[in-house]
Design a protein that fits this description.
349 residues; mainly alpha; two-stranded antiparallel sheet; 13 helices; 73% helix; globular
Length: 349
């Protein structure tokens, strides 16, 4: 088992190194081709920033998985589990290409939704499926095929867009995704889901390494390509690593780990609908916008949401039965309380 975990360490490290080395090159190409995000409107940056950083995140993740595959790391997995790895990876590629196309040429919201739903349906067809649902006071129930398809598509497409929607401040989406990925990695390893752990280890390494260039003040943005890739991969790993386990706790864990982007997106959509506006029209109703409007500095806003994400993840660790999981939850609660106190103090000053 310890030897098997070596492959997860390799995946994390290879992804991190590839992102560190490739991001400056991507930035150079973006600057010289004009693919930059201009300031203005809802945006908080003051100068043009290259928005193609998702290329580095994608390259790092795929390079890590190919390295492990080349070293024979997939050979210790059951054939169906290896199939699931490539199913999530290829689905992530498709979502990346949709976002990358949007970054380069622009796509309408309806076209993006159609393409994303099609890819998600294909992913469901190859086995990335939510087949069980937990109903309060009833427990775990098996879903009929049509409902399994619908819920899986909503989950995959919804998470891809949820990560994209929180990508409004330097380092926010990358940090939230990185924290969620590390928590998911720990849970997958604890539950013996080694295939899902390989994918999420690579994603964690790529995402956290990207913060070297993306944290405030950001040198590069991940763009829609990076955000869609992160969101789909997190959601896909949540399915193949956790939701497929026929236990009530396991089914709930992905939703708890990713609670911050899920609740942010849900609240924004509900708020827009109540206001009689289209849920696709961008505005400043997101959590990070509200914290900025309350007077929090840019970095403090990002750090507070990091702490909130870590707190939600620590609850997942506690509920999963991981040794010392409760201690992690208590520590995360203390960190969130301290960060909230600091944020409130800075907002008043």
């Amino acid at each position: 088992m310890q030897f098997q975990h070596l492959y997860h360490i390799i995946a994390f490290c290879v992804a991190a190194v590839v992102v560190l080395l490739s991001t400056p090159a991507v930035k150079y190409i973006g600057l010289h081709t004009g693919y930059v995000d201009l300031p203005g409107g809802r945006k908080v940056h003051q100068k043009p920033i290259v928005r193609l950083g998702g290329v580095s995140i994608f390259l790092g993740t795929v390079a890590a998985l190919l390295t492990v595959w080349g070293l024979g790391g997939f050979g210790v997995l059951p054939p169906d589990k290896e199939y699931e790895i490539w199913g999530v990876t290829l689905g992530g590629l498709a979502f990346f290409l949709i976002g990358f196309t949007d970054d380069l040429f622009g796509l309408s919201p309806v076209m993006r939704l159609i393409l994303q739903s099609t890819v998600a349906a294909i992913a469901w067809n190859v086995g990335v499926q939510i087949s069980f649902l937990t109903i309060p006071f009833i427990g775990l129930i098996s879903l009929p095929v049509w409902l399994s398809l619908a819920i899986t598509v909503v989950w995959l497409v919804g998470m891809a867009n949820a990560i994209n929607w929180i990508d409004g401040l330097d380092g926010l989406a990358a940090g939230v995704s990185g924290i969620a990925a590390v928590v998911m990695l720990i849970v997958c390893l604890f539950m013996g889901e080694l295939a899902a752990a390989l994918v999420i280890a690579a994603l964690a390494g790529a995402t956290l390494s990207f913060l070297r260039y993306n944290f405030n003040p950001a040198q590069i943005f991940m763009g829609d390509g990076g955000a869609y890739f992160l969101g789909f991969t997190l959601a896909g790993v949540g399915i193949i690593g956790l939701v497929k386990s026929v236990t009530t706790v396991a089914v709930l864990l992905p939703y708890l780990i990713l609670a911050v982007p899920i609740l942010d997106m849900s609240a924004v959509i509900l708020n827009r609908l109540v206001s009689g506006k289209s849920p696709f029209i961008a505005d400043k109703r997101h959590l990070h916008h509200r914290l900025l409007q309350a007077g929090l500095p840019h970095r403090m806003t990002v750090l507070f949401i990091y702490a909130l994400t870590f707190w939600a993840g620590s609850l997942a660790l506690a509920f999963s039965g991981i040794p010392s999981g409760l201690a992690y939850a208590i520590a995360a609660t203390a960190l969130l309380s301290y960060t909230g106190w600091k944020a409130r103090k800075q907002a008043r000053s």
